[in-house]
Amino acid sequence: MKILIIGGTKFIGAHLARHLLEAGHTLTLLNRGQQAPPFPLDLETIHCDRAELPAKRPELAGRSFDVAIDMICMNTSNIRQTIDALEGIVPRICVISSMDVYRARDILAGSDPSPVDNSPLTETSPLRSRLFPYQQGFKPGDDLYQIYDKIPVEATLQTLTKSDWTICRLPCVYGPGDYQRRLLPFSKRFTDKRSTILMDRDWAAWRWTWGYVEEVARAIAAAALHPAGANQIFNIGEEQTPSFQERFALCSDILDWPLKTTLAKAEKLPSNEDWAGLNLAQHWIADTSKIRSLLGYQEILTPKECLQKTLDWELANPPESVEPTRFDYAAEDAYISSQSSN
Fold it and tell me: First-to-last CA distance in the chain?
């Protein structure tokens, strides 16, 4: 098939592009050309800024694409640009969305007073009632998060386009090249030869659906290209969601490293990562059965293999700098010592 990807050079998009090329598809990327993909990709690239996308319509009209996949559609303006550029040219538009559209996200964040509901999130689960979920907590000038919201993106796509559409709601995505360093709390302690990890008791038990980047790329491809994926919304992510303590225990097993876990209440911890203020009684678990049953999608790699490949990359590519307060070992040791002496 002939596929247009808007974006396609960063973490998830580059893996998607590589997967589609390896599957034999003809691929064109459309992006600003400001960032090279993390590995070589032999394909055509059209350079333009997002805001200039509708002006590319005459050029795109002279080509033949079977589907377009928009990796970087962050707000209503973005999806309107995509539709204006591609309506009537591309028979199917796939847009990447997020699990943060669900009400569970705001219950977790404490901005929705609804009772905790830990039923796995299906594609028809309640959405947030409040728009622009990340406006608070970001510095002035961080324009992306001032206007970011996938709920109006999804609604606008379904309402305005006459093309077929597909929406992929992504989980927490990890793997080699992860700029958010999901496994850093574990990999750094391994590098520093720590024997114990001090964890917030609630965070240790918390469950948040993840997705390994190569498997997420395969799932996006299946959703975007399969005939049965037209005019459908799909949750994408791992089939079973472990707790953070269970995920770290598997990492410990992979590295053959007997890491001891000490649990404590959040207020007793010298630091508690990024979880302060969250209602961790609310898990963020996705039901990903629809894409499996309707499209026949199934992971190739096991959870252990996914973590192994990510840890290999993490340990080979440590970050240049780390916020010191995230790893205050002296304070951690003092707390652990105080508990052992009680």
Answer: 66
| Domain span holding position 209 | 2-340
Which tokens sit at 294? 């309707």
CA 327 to CA 40: how far, in whole Å? 35
Nearest to 148 by CA among 93, 97, 104: 97
- Token reading at 298: 């199934």
Residue 125 scores a pLDDT above 80: yes
Domain count, the chain: 1
Q: Does position 139 have pLDDT exceeding 60, yes or no?
A: no
> How far is the C-alpha of 209 from the C-alpha of 48, rounded, in Å?
34
CA 254 from centre of chain? 23
Task: Give the CATH number for residue 237.
Answer: 3.40.50.720
Query: Quick one: tokens of 174?
Result: 């990890």
- Per-residue pLDDT band for 136 (boundaries 50, 70, 90) equals confident
Q: Which two tokens stand for residue 239?
A: 């089939």
Q: Which residues of 182-211 are buried (b: 16+ CB within 10 A; e: fewer)?
A: bbbbbbbbbeeebeebbbbbbbbbbbbbbb
DSSP state of 55: G
Lowest mean pLDDT, pick from 54-58, 110-114, 283-287, 336-340: 336-340
User: What confidence category does residue 327 fall into, taking pLDDT thresholds of 50, 70 and 90?
Assistant: confident
Q: Which two three-digit tokens encode residue 125?
A: 């689960």
| SS3 of residue 36 by DSSP | coil
- The structure's pTM equals 0.94
Give CA–CA dist 291/277, Å, rounded. 33
Residue 258 zone, left/alpha/beta (φ > 0; ψ -120 to 50; rest): beta
